């Protein structure tokens, strides 16, 4: 019998996140089982990772950073992945694993992972057909195979950084299935028998270890929205099952991401050093004081009004450690990419929430930053 966890994507992020959690849980007897990983692209680095995993199922994850002001620098051998497949060359075996063995499906596909392609047609459902290009189309083929093999339930737990990623992926899959002429019974299976779970993942995985492995910060989060009937791949201290996933999304967006974008705003407007990173910015007393004032006076009152002030302050302690990671060269020049859009997505919601909650706070830094033009 094959592995109960089937994972689409070989990214270094998953190696240092879900796969590492499963590996650690296996040692404690808290995992569903081991993982079959499937390469979904033709990327040469992905192919090298698959080859390395086939040659040696273990790989290193080096954890480097700060945790409660203490330096962490340790390497963990991860052993959760015991089978590595390529969707382009091993598609019949992928179909078999999906149809008969999988109980949980994880994914972290490329930036275009949720894209749909005109070249993917219902001909992909035919026996012996090649794998379709799009991930949603791949899932339609695989879910059809599982449906025809007995329609066993399945939990799908996407890890892409897309809001409501489970619901979004389900809608895409249903859309492809309908375009391909799916019958009502199969559509019911997709929509109601399978469990599509929204989740939020958070961990900075800064570098690969080639050919397989990763370097990551100590902080890690996998917030999973509770769904009836869902099966989890493991239990782990970094995993939180919640009825309030938007709370965790707000923490990340309005404290971590907002802090990054405000430092990038100051980097641009002040003409700061080209190679400045988050750690050096946090060590500038005046800039650090300004960022702390932004969090304290313009953002935390919103969380207080939502009844989440204590959680926000605890999360902010983690954010400070992450920003001051001595091993991470997270440059403000990189953070400033797509700066105008990031400001709108990260600053405007705080202002809107303050207005909705009828808070009497001025939020001058946020307003000033939103008014400022973005350099070409």
From TrEMBL:
Residues 5-226 form the Mannitol dehydrogenase N-terminal domain. The keyword Oxidoreductase applies. Keywords: NAD, Oxidoreductase. Pfam families: Mannitol_dh, Mannitol_dh_C. SUPFAM superfamilies: 6-phosphogluconate dehydrogenase C-terminal domain-like, NAD(P)-binding Rossmann-fold domains. This is D-mannonate oxidoreductase. It comes from Sorangium cellulosum. Residues 244-360 form the Mannitol dehydrogenase C-terminal domain. GO terms for molecular function: oxidoreductase activity.
